[in-house]
Amino acid sequence: MAVVLRLSRAGTHKAPFYHVVATDSRNARDGKYLEDVGIYDPTKRPERIELKVERIEHWLKAGAKPSQTVAMILKRAAKAAAPVAPKA
């Protein structure tokens, strides 16, 4: 079973938001999944990104591969969460 981290669409017509899920690569986009590991809402400004970081790390260590979009979201979240060093 090839596990992937990808987006599952939710919301209404023209107002989507997405769940970040760990699922088998053969399942449909909005089909069954193994675990819900976060939320991504691109309609909010700034974008709403809520991730269960420890569960995402667990799945990545277990061999799950993130989709291109989820990889981009993970990079944005890591960049936003990184502490800013004070200027000397």
Describe the structure.
By secondary structure, the chain is of the alpha+beta class. The protein has one domain (3-73): Ribosomal protein S16 (S16 Ribosomal Protein, Chain: A, 2-Layer Sandwich), CATH 3.30.1320. It has helices at 53-61, 68-81; strands spanning 3-12, 15-24, 35-41, 48-51, 65-66. A 5-stranded mixed β-sheet has the order 4-3-2-1-5. The longest helix has 14 residues, at 68-81. The chain is flat and about 50 Å long. The model has no long low-confidence stretch (mean pLDDT 91).
What is the highest CATH level, the class?
A: Alpha Beta
Alpha-beta content class: alpha+beta
Quaternary structure: single chain
CATH homologous superfamily annotation: Ribosomal protein S16
Unreliable residue runs: none
Indicate the mean pLDDT: 91
Strand content: 35-45%
Helix content: 25-40%
Physical arrangement of strands within the biggest beta sheet:
4-3-2-1-5
> Biggest sheet, open or closed, and with what strands and sense?
5 strands, mixed
CATH architecture: 2-Layer Sandwich
Shape: flat
- Count of individual domains: 1
Instruction: Give me the strand/helix succession.
Output: EEEEHEH
Gyration radius, in Å? 14 Å
Q: What fold name goes in the CATH topology slot?
A: S16 Ribosomal Protein, Chain: A
Total strands: the figure is 5
Number of distinct helices: 2
Task: Present the secondary structure layout.
Elements: E1 3-12, E2 15-24, E3 35-41, E4 48-51, H1 53-61, E5 65-66, H2 68-81
Parallel strand pairs: 1-5
Antiparallel strand pairs: 1-2, 2-3, 3-4
